[in-house]
Each structure stands twice: as structure tokens, then as C-alpha cells.
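Weekly structure sync, notes
Attendees: PL (lead), two postdocs, one rotation student
Agenda item 3: pending single-chain targets
PL asked that the sequence for the first pending target be pasted directly into the notes so everyone works from the same version. It is reproduced below exactly as submitted, 315 residues in total.
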Amino acid sequence: MKFLKSIAIATVGLSMVTGSLAVAADCTASKWGKDDQIGSANLVTPERVLEATKLIKQGKTQPLGIVIDSQTPAFPPRGLSLQVVQPNQQGGQRLFAYEGSYNDDLMQLWLGIGSQLDGLGHLGQNGMYYNCNEEKDFAAITGLTKLGTHNMPPMVGRGIVLDMAQHFGMPFLPAGKFFTASDIQAAAKSQGVKISEGDVVLFHTGWTDAKFASDPTAWASAEPGISEDAAEWLAAQNVMAVGADTWGVDVVPPQKEGRPFWGHVVLLKENGIYLLETMNTGPLVKDGVTEFMFVLGQPRVRGTVQMIINPVALY
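Predicted structure, written out during the meeting:
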């Protein structure tokens, strides 16, 4: 019996090893090299930045981040807690000769809440992440040792926003409604927009404008979003980032049962393309904006998977 048990353990161990080797064998190194950690951020070039500045016609700026607080709905169990304190000032103590006082703030939070950047270390498949990085090699409890969002340069370039609600003739797309590659192409054509390499592509579904304040539980429980072939097509266009006015960009419930957030796999893991979630696209659409200069300088906290962000659209 001991012999049979040893054989069984050895067989399981061998299958785990061979399975791991198979996953590694299937992995293709990034087109930017086997040591690359920033993926599509390599598309930020001086030429593209200068071209993007030409999109500023009115001198207007629009924040693409939303205001968040302890009540902001989020993918469970994410949330935040904020405390404002006056350190060492109890009982009327004053720390400065001129009777000065001050406030500080403490926060405990998840970085994947509200308007957020999904970094390349966020989602993989079978333990494999962007550029053949295995989770056991870089995902430490104290922070990622590779693929952290702090590695990214400022994300600056041409931004475009496609009004998918208008495309379908709806005030907002309902939860579970997905749009395909052909839908994106048709919307771009009708709205006079061409998607090019290095673009930041944002989709307006109307979901956040319609549900975030009025029904936060529904807002965070499901969403409209991209189909699987839409993710593949966007990746083929070599865009820099894909975002939406939804909390997950992908459609929820998923297009195909058992494959939730498959667009994350295609874009993040397979192509090194960043995701921008809960983007405040409504004001741009209301202002008739279809293209703009996109600027993001994310907080540079070493080893982070995601980051709360507030990109700016200039037009």
C-alpha cells in the first residue's frame, strides 16, 4: 500500500510538473523582448505625444476619474476607509511656536476601486502572466517584483471615445449587453473616428451615468462591455489601453459561460495592453468630443497590481 501511495504521489507530482511545463511552452515572449515589463506603454513616443498636443483645440480639460469614498460600490470585497487625524494635538497641544495646527489623513483601501488602472500583473491564466512571468516568481505578499504599475512611464497620447449607447440607439447599454469588433468598427465609422496604433480607446456605454448613483448595487453586480472578439480586434490594432465607463470593461455576465473577464486575459496577459476602468466618459460625450489628448501620471507605488487614477482629457 505504501508503494502504491508513493507511486500515486509521484504521478500527481509529475503531472503538475508536466502541466507547468506545458503552460510555459505555450507562452510567447513579448514583441518588446523577453525582459519587457511595460507592454504597450512602449508605444509612448515623442512623436505620438507631439501629435496628441494638436488635438487641443478649445483649451478644455476634463477629469476622467470619479470621486470615491467609503460608500463607493466596488468588486467585492474591495472598499476604502478614511480617517482624518490631528497627530499629537490632543488636549489643545500646539506643536509650532505660532499656535499652528494641522490635519493628516490615514487610508486603508484596495487600489482597485473607482477609476483605476489594471496593470500587467493583475490577471493571467494558469498562473502565467504577461511576457511569460509565472506568479510564483513575481507575486510576493509585499508587492510584485515584476510588472508593477510603478514601472510605467506617463501614459500620454491620443485618446478616443466611442459612444456605444448612441450606436445601439439606447440611453445606456443594459447589463449583459456586449458589443463586438464589428460594432466597434461601425460606431467608429459613423462617429468619424479611426482607431490607430498607440491610441487609448474609451467606450461610453452610459452604464455609470445611469446606475452608479441611482442603483449602486446593480451597477457593481453586472455591466455591459466588450465581447471576446472585440478584445482580440483591439489588440490587433496595437492600442495602448482600453477603457470604459464601467467597472470591468468586459461584459458581465460573460459572453461565454465559464469565461469571465476573458478580455482581461487577451489584453493584459497576451498583449500587454492596459485596462482603464470606471472612466468618466459622460462629460466628453455630452461635449461632442471624439478625440483628445490623454494624459495619465499614475501614483508610483512600487509593486502595485492596480492603481486608483484620475487621467485628464485635454481638447
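Discussion points:
- Confidence is low (pLDDT under 50) at residues 1-23.
- The first strand starts at residue 61 and ends at 63.
Action: rotation student to compare against the earlier draft before next sync.
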